[in-house]
Amino acid sequence: MRSLDVLNHPFREQFEVFLDEHRRVLDNCLEGMTEEQARRSLVPSRTTLLGLVKHATFVEKVWFDEAVTCRPRTEIGLPATPDESFILDEKDTIATVRKAYREACEASRKAASALELDDLLHGNRRGPLPLRWVYLHLLRELAQHGGHADILREQILSA
């Protein structure tokens, strides 16, 4: 073990604990929802509970597939833009979206496990970024979307 690994371990472990907590929040926002409730639109944007989890799947794949492997989004099967990742089609159900999200999260964990916090990911459009930056960015994004999901779920359940 390199000396930096000893110093990075507590930070990395905490990053991963927080990431998994926020991942669970998004996954659990669909718990007990009907298909109609999960698709219900309460805001002018494309944001729905099901759309948020589908978008989170996109985010995981952008950061831990595209950025790590340098494969283009078309090859991975991702939409070109984040906004498009909220679009739901007929095959998107609570079960299929949750399954895809859980699989994407597991693939992200595996991809990151081979990396150090300061390793650069070269496949993102912003240019090379260290895994540490990616973890912080993902924490910010998942926390934001978890808050959106919490508010939407509260509105749906109180209706």
CATH class: Mainly Alpha
How many domain units? 1
Q: Major β-sheet, in short?
A: 2 strands, antiparallel
Spatial order of strands in the largest sheet = 1-2
CATH architecture descriptor? Up-down Bundle
* CATH homologous superfamily title: dinb family like domain
> Helix fraction?
55-70%
Subunit organisation of the chains:
single chain
Find the CATH topology: Four Helix Bundle (Hemerythrin (Met), subunit A)
Question: Residue ranges: pLDDT <50 for 5 or more in a row?
Answer: none
Strand content: under 5%
Distance between the termini: 55 Å
Could you say which overall geometry the principal axes of the C-alpha atoms support? globular
The strand count comes to: 2
Overall radius of gyration: 16 Å
Structure annotation, total helices: 6
Give the ordered list of helices and strands: HHHHHEEH
Mean of pLDDT: 93
Structural class: mainly alpha
Describe the structure.
- The protein has 159 residues and is an all-alpha fold.
- It has one domain (17-158): dinb family like domain (Four Helix Bundle (Hemerythrin (Met), subunit A)).
- Helices cover 65% and strands 3% of the residues.
- It is built from six helices and two strands; from the N terminus they run αααααββα.
- The protein has a two-stranded antiparallel ribbon with strand order 1-2.
- Helix 3 (49-69) runs parallel beside helix 5 and helix 3 (49-69) runs antiparallel to helix 6 (131-158).
- The protein starts with a helix and ends with a helix.
- The mean pLDDT is 93.
